[in-house]
Amino acid sequence: MTTRTTPRRLAAATAVAAALTAGLLAVPATAAAAPSPSRLSGDFNGDGYRDVAIAAPAATVGGKKWAGQVVVTYGTGQGLASTSKRSVISQNSPGVPGAAEKGDEFGRQIAVADLNGDGYSDLAVAAPKEKAGRKEAAGALVIVWGSRAGLSGATTVKNPQPLWGSSFGIGLAAADFTGDGKPDLAVAAQSDTGRNAYRIRLIRGPFTKQGRTGKVTTYQAPLERPGLTAGHINGDKKADLIVTGQQTGKDVLGAAVFYKGTASGLAKGAKLRAGRTAAVGDLNGDGYGDIALGNPDDPDEEPSGSKGGEISVIYGTKSGPSKTRRKTLTQNSAGVPGTSETGDNFGSAVAIGDFDGDRRADLAVGVPGETYGKDPYVDSAGAVVYLRGSASGLTTAGATAVHQDSAGVPGTRETANSFGEALLATDVNGDGRADLTIASSQANADEGAIWHLPGARGAVPYSTTDSTGFRPGQLGLSKKYSWFGAMLAG
Ligand SMILES: [Ca+2]
Ligand SMILES: [Ca+2]
Ligand SMILES: [Ca+2]
Ligand SMILES: [Ca+2]
Questions:
Q1: Residues 205, 289: contact at Cβ < 8 Å?
Q2: d(Cα 122, Cα 145) in Å, to the nearest integer?
Q3: How far does residue 309's CA lie from ligand 1's centre (Å)?
Q4: Other beta carbons less than 10 A from residue 333's beta carbon
Q5: For the segment 435-466, what is each residue's pLDDT rounded down to a tens digit?
Q6: Are 201 and 219 in contact (CB under 8 A)?
Q7: Contact 467, 453 (CB under 8 A)
Q8: What is the CA(395)–ligand 4 centre distance, in A?
Q9: pTM for the full model?
Q10: DSSP 3-state assignment of 443?
Q11: β-strand pairing of 140-144 with 122-127
Q12: Is 480 strand, coil or helix?
């Protein structure tokens, strides 16, 4: 069979917060104040419904190929029900610094947090191939600001060391790593100390619209091409960082390293199991975030890999990732739907959220290379496997595989649709259950598509009646290949 090469990326994941309780307030006769923002993470317009940002870093903008753009769809009580409630953002948008140029890859990484503390979530967008002066691919990062009217205006975050080819923003995460209540950014870039040496910078908040930031600390990255994922592992108020990437000096992908967030910065911790995608959430409900790592590559591409791909779970404890409570699963593991086949890419994306609303987070695993049948043979139609959380951790009881022919999922299984290439778990409709947004940049002859499956109780952890799907044209983007859905955040 054909083995598809899927672009390497991280799927962002968000732990589910409590459902928003919207109450009707009597407005005092003297006050006509604007409603205060919800302060929900991922709610850019503060209306109480989380929103979803979809990156298209290869989009042509103003005739410039691979300039890149991002579209944000605003959530409603009915989920991602409206294609018209949206913002399309590029470097050519009013108020956004820079200009769309060929090959900038604006949107290659995106991350969400309320970076200026005004109650509206903001969107950090990296353009790692942006030129700085004469330095090609030095990389640039902007914060697009949330407001009552949605995302509007942006400010550059200074690249501390713009070097030729440094690709500032090749990895990106937003969270309060230092625990002072002001979210920070962790940003990866290539350094000048060696061809394959990378750095991670902790750029402390608060960030202002005038371009001010807190102190910046630089760390040598433990891995090449570092991908960054934030989450709370050890139960304190300081977010921790998972770095995934390639082991330095070896032709081996799929390593992961834990960094503890501390008041004074990031503290390097244990090496974890192999993985190049990561998500954090509390799968066993003990109050500590657990780490899921996806290691999708076959052994011929990735010596640490296993045929068809694998995922590992490492449970959080008060002292960080558990050294003993770890589990690795493949599609050949008992109870996991499907079979491990070369090119499945099980673990290409992982996302954690409580999809069924039982107060334990569940894991969604993308299998974009999943292939079906003999006649017709449907190559790389793709699937998503839901694995549920329980008091004893991740379980295969009640595991479900979803694909485009599953009940209620828009579209039909088609060759090379690569359903499940990227995933995001957030509660968009405010019912307390996580909703799964699924992307494929390759669907419909490389046009790309997203699907949105609201969480639900029962045998299948998504709504078979309210699931929706969008194509880029419906969101105001081009139908040409744009790497649509390369990254999701919310
Ligand atoms: Ca919203
Ligand atoms: Ca803000
Ligand atoms: Ca846990
Ligand atoms: Ca659950």
A1: no
A2: 5
A3: 35
A4: 15
A5: 999 999 999 999 999 999 999 998 999 999 99
A6: yes
A7: yes
A8: 11
A9: 0.92
A10: helix
A11: antiparallel
A12: coil
